[in-house]
Every structure is written in C-alpha cells, then in structure tokens.
Design a protein that fits this description.
With about 450 residues, this protein is mainly β. It has two helices and 32 strands. A four-stranded antiparallel sheet has the order 1-32-31-30, with no helix packed on it.
Length: about 450
C-alpha cells in the first residue's frame, strides 16, 4: 500500500493554508470544526472562541469550462456563541463551536446551524449590495430625528449601490433541551427537522419551533452507576427521512427507524464487530469507542472511525464491516504512553469523497490518510506550512516502526502528538479537502 505515486492514482497538491504562523497558539483560535455547504462554494470553520468564519471559493472561472481554482477567501466572520454560566449547576458553558451544518439553499441567503455544548443556533448569512438613503425622519446615521419641526419639505428616499456587505443574523435559538454536552447535530433530508445528540439523549427539532423538541433516544439508566456506554455521534440518512444512526463508546452503531415507534430506544439494526481475543488489552474498550459516523452519499454504507482504524459498513450486513482500514496501527505498541498523555481520548473525524470512492481521516504529526476503496491503495500525506508552494504535489510520508530508517521515513518515536488533524471535510463534488490542524486549516486539491 502507500503507493500513490503509481500510475492512475490521485495526486494531491497544496492549495492554500489559512491561519497564523506563531508558535504560541491562543486557545480561542484552535479550529474545532470544518464543513462545506451543499455545492462546495462556501466552507465554514468554527473555533474554540465561539467564532464562525465562512470562506467563499475563488469566483474566477466560475461557469466556464476547464478547471477552477481551489482557493477560498474570507467571506464572513461572526461571533456565534458567547461563554455562559449555568448558575443551577455552577458550571461554565464554553463558547467552543462543536459542529456546523449547512441547510439546503432555497433563496439568495445561506442558512447554517452551529452548536456549542448546550445551545444550537440557526444563522442567516446574506449579501447586501444596496442601501436606502435620504429618509425624512432619520438622520445620516439612521437614528430617528428628535426635532421634526425642522422638516420643511418632503423627499423621496433613494436606493444606492454600496460595496458588498455580508451580514450574519441569528434567526432561531434552540436551547434548554440538553443536560449533557452536545456532540452532534444533523439535518434531516426533509429539510424541516434536525437532531441534536448529547452523551445520553438525542432530540428531534423542527426548524420553525424553538420551545419544543422531541426526545427520540434516551439511554440514561435509572441508576447512573449502571451506565456502561455513551452516545458519541449521530447522523440522519441522506435520503430516507425516517432513518438515523448513532454510535457509542462501546464501538457499536445503531440504526433507528422513526416509523416504528416514537422513542427509538429499540434499534432496527445494530452493527458490531466481534472483538479479536488476540488483541484484547487494558485499552481495548477505549480504542474501540467510535468518534465519528458518516453515511455515504448514496446512503448504502456507513463510515466509522475508532482510535486506530476506519471501517465501512453495509447497511444490509450488521455482523462485520465490509472494509477495514488501519489508520496508524504502528501506535498500538504506544497505547500506554498515549493513555498517560490523554491522546488516546482524541476524537478523529472521517469523510467520504463526493463519489464515495475515497475515504479520509486524520492522524498525528499533522498526517492525514486517504484510502481508495476501488484499488485498496492508501496514502499518508502531511499538512505542513514548510516547503509548500501553490500546486506543489505532496510527497507520501511513511512511518518507520523498527530497524533501519530509510530516506523520507519518520520514526514512530519522532511523531509529534501535539500536532493532530482531528477535523476533516471533503468537497461534495470535487476532490478538494479541508483539514483543521490546531489554529490553521489547509486546503488540498486532487488531480489525476
């Protein structure tokens, strides 16, 4: 494997990097999620400071034949969430953006959902190119005039063109429905409802109703001492509005059908791989916890990420995954050290390509892994500011586990575990990927 240089494979080129180059990273600047919209023209990032930054693809060449630039420029920035304090529980509520999900565009404006640990917000992002001027009862700043006696004549306001202004405004706030931290939000294919999931419950919301949600999954035991697993991720099926899945810390994935019952505590199917006794260890339960689950675009498969591997499941076969890809198997011997520095609890995301042929996930040392499901080849690439020029082809990286290290290889003992790619996104129709590496996000473009 690791043979991306072979003829016919996809080559990846550096496109751009956004973010600061300072060594000392401010906690608030660390990127916590990335998400393309449905046509890939916009890319949103959220950070630990509660900010959402939206990037727009370079419009040069749009609508023309031939390849377009894969570069994105800042389109809008706004503060989505502020730090809060829960006085009943004496707990601080972080402003960190956990997830962003775009709604399907239905008019000139764009809409997206963003969530922190407790509150989901619906934002409208719209462009303004004109402004009305020359009001009778308002001054130049737009404030109402106090002395109307000075008005001696009436004038007709006029609309004037202005420089493009992008405005983000909150339209709905969905709050007070989660006792535990929200880890997932997912918009239904009916585009009217969405789910929000925390450690023990999943709620169903209507986009027009903010004061009421329906609890559709509740795994909280009567006695919390009997708690054996928590919900780690949840997602709606891309086309069947009654189906959704959620994953657990025990490594199971449950498919639920909302047609069968209102409370989906009883799943329609459970996907679970029997544990290999040969690999049983103290860390088995921790590394089997699923950190992300994604439906393929055609709705036939599920992609899951645990600590050491990516797995593809067929919805028609729940006994074992149909494909399994080791991400960084060389870390199995390092689990004790990873447990001590808490890296073993890192939650890596995964992504499908637009045609479902490729799957992608992140790793340590700013490595990311791309697997070709057709050829079964894979490649390890590095997101690194140094020695990267626009359209430069990335060289595959290899990790040496023992023995004599070859040229261009890196020893497993030299990996930097503070550099990690947890958040990834793939353009819905093109081979463009976005990766969040601490306070920077990288864009890479694939070419045949």
């Amino acid at each position: 494997m690791d043979s991306a240089a072979n003829s016919g494979d996809l080559l990846w080129c550096f496109s751009q990097v956004k973010g600061t180059v300072e060594e000392d990273v401010t906690e608030a600047d660390i990127i916590s999620c990335v998400e393309f919209n449905s046509d890939g023209e916009l890319l949103a990032t959220g950070d630990k400071g509660g900010r959402v930054v939206i990037f727009q693809r370079d419009q040069t060449g749009k609508g023309c034949d031939g390849p377009r630039s894969g570069e994105y420029n800042v389109y809008s920035t706004f503060q989505s969430h502020e730090p809060e304090f829960d006085y009943l529980k004496s707990l601080e509520i972080e402003e960190k953006i956990n997830k962003i999900r775009w709604l399907k565009r239905c008019n000139a404006a764009h809409f997206l959902l963003s969530t922190n640990d407790k509150t989901v917000k619906l934002w409208k992002v719209s462009e303004k190119r004109k402004r009305a001027e020359g009001f009778n009862l308002r001054d130049g700043t737009g404030s109402l005039m106090h002395d109307v006696s000075s008005i001696t004549s009436l004038r007709v306001p006029v609309v004037k063109s202005i420089d493009l202004m992008v405005e983000a405004s909150p339209r709905r706030v969905f709050a007070n429905a989660h006792t535990y931290h929200i880890n997932s939000i997912s918009i239904n294919s009916d585009w009217m409802t969405f789910l929000s999931a925390d450690d023990l419950r999943i709620n169903l919301w209507h986009l027009e109703v903010t004061d009421q949600s329906f609890n559709i999954v509740d795994i909280k035991p009567a006695n919390m001492e009997e708690l054996t697993e928590v919900i780690t991720a949840a997602e709606f099926h891309p086309t069947e509005c009654h189906l959704f899945v959620y994953s657990s810390s025990k490594g199971t994935i449950r498919l639920c059908d909302m047609r069968s019952q209102a409370l989906c505590d009883k799943h329609a199917k459970m996907f679970e791989e029997p544990e290999d006794p040969a690999n049983r260890s103290f860390f088995s339960e921790i590394i089997s916890s699923i950190s992300d689950v994604k439906f393929s675009h055609n709705g036939r498969y599920l992609l899951t990420r645990d600590y050491l591997s990516l797995k593809v499941w067929d919805l028609h076969m729940d006994s074992k995954p149909v494909e399994s890809y080791p991400v960084h198997e060389y870390l199995r011997s390092k689990l004790c050290a990873l447990y001590e520095n808490d890296c073993i609890f890192d939650k890596f995301e995964c992504a499908w390509s637009g045609n479902d042929r490729y799957v992608m996930t992140g790793s340590y040392n700013n490595f990311f892994r791309i697997f070709d499901r057709e050829t079964r080849r894979d490649v390890t690439l590095e997101a690194n500011r140094e020695n990267l020029k626009p359209r430069q082809v990335l060289k595959p990286r290899r990790v040496c586990t023992s023995g004599k290290r070859k040229k261009d290889e890196i020893s497993v003992d030299c990996l930097d575990f503070n550099k990690k790619i947890l958040h990834t996104a793939w353009h819905p129709t093109e081979n463009i990927v976005s990766l969040a590496a601490t306070n920077n996000f990288y864009l890479f473009q694939g070419r045949d």
